[in-house]
Amino acid sequence: MAQKTTTKLGEVAARYPDVPRLIILKTDVQRRGVFYSDAAVGLLDERLHQTTGTHIFGSRDGDLTLRPESLLLRDGSSIITTPTPLEEDPYLVDVKEGVPWLFDDGVALEAVDYWPAPDFYSKTANSGVPMKNIVSARPQRLNIFPYRYCTFWNNNKGCAFCDIVSQLKKGGKELNIPAKLDPKEVSDVVGEALKEPGRFSAVFLTSGSIVSGQTPFDDEIDYYVQILQEVGKHFKARKFPSQIIGTAFTKKQLQRLYDETGLMSYTSDIEVLNEELFNQLCPGKAEWIGYQEWKKRLVDAVDVFGPGRVNTGLVAGIELTRPHGFMSEDEALERTLAEAEDLAQQGVSTVFIVWSPRPDTPLGNQKNASLDYYIRLARGLHALRVKYRLPIGYDDYRHCGNHPDSDLSRLLPY
Question: What CATH number labels 119-411?
């Protein structure tokens, strides 16, 4: 029998010659997930590679079994992906000639690497918690997840795609991951990580929302200030390469965050660019802040951090879920890009992640969008940044690796 040489991926790539094939592959791997063969798992070496489990959100198969944290492509970009049951048609990670490869329908597509473990992953903090459970890493970024709960879930109004609470319960019991981190201990681990020269290019921080305080979210701001001040002690400059994904804060809260810490960029994820869908899918955000106010606070943040230093994120695909979503991908694309342009012309960039339906969420039994949709959305958001001259260097393939649209910034001449 002749070996199959074409795949659905190749057909899609042929329709978008302006988009690098590896970005299309990365997007589809995020869309469909991966399944690791026994042979692929056998190549995993905990001394050399990062293993799954430290992230604030869970996987599509809901399992914490030992597996690679994620994958690197030959162009140096990372794939933030999720292990997925075979019956859901994921890509297969298997072994070819002694190294891991991505396979689809029996065709070997690309050799991949597992994320390398930084030196501090083998060490333990003074509290007895593994350092990797206090500060984790992407290939070029340090991740801090200081609070692994979101208080929007207190009255069951968390976002419909979010499994932060179930992941907290699993991680705490099975992996010894603290629910809330001590700022001083975070700083100690960051200091240990920085002993590996040239390894990391940025510090990233995100948590669940904390609604409490004299005014809503003051306690969240207080906590972030404490952590960022402790981390900042390791840098000589007043500002250091850093990003936070937080709630949509007031301008007063944002100014405090900027003035009192070394933070350089701010992200607040609106999740979906449509008010009706926002109210349906993000009821806690709608209750405490509201769609129009969320957008206003994003624009206010530009006055604080500057144009090109503020963005918002979408969980792309939830806008098509039933029963409230758009009826077609064409409508979803048109409406989403129109809202994104409204933000872009006011200095706010929009990026997206490929939605991965997870079993412990209200939307877990639905499907995400087509590969064509995600490629068209990536091209559209990238074009808006070009049109309005919005740099995205703080959230590109080096600093994040989770946004197919910001990966396209590699094509720009500036």
Answer: 3.20.20.70
